[in-house]
Amino acid sequence: MTNKLTNFKMLSADSINSHYYIKSYAEGVFYILQNQPEKAEIVKNNTFFISNEKIEDFNQIDSFADLTIEMIKEFDGIDILIIGSGEKQLFPDKQFLSQLSSLNFSVEFMNNAAASRTFNVLVNDERKVAAIFFV
Q: Which of 35, 43, 78, 105 is the most exposed place for a label (fewest CB within 10 A)?
């Protein structure tokens, strides 16, 4: 049996200026770095959210299927919301997707690997970005 912590995939060797960024991940575990002061967190919670400024548990729901438009509307003041749906890319139903057009920001659905990389690129470009990850 392999220890999950030894299977981390490094995401970026570049210097990232954001307060938080995702340094690496393994199945179900994220390694988050905090630039100022230098501090690392390992996130193993079922669902969490991260932005340029903060990282928090997103304990409102337990699975991707429980996500509602009301929860997404709370992320006002950002340019883009990335939703990491887990190891596989999942999409909500058509009705949910049509409700997203009323928001003042973009919402993108990706698997966790792509969502992590995209989050890091956007925070490094100093975009106002947030991400929800389903572990």
A: 35
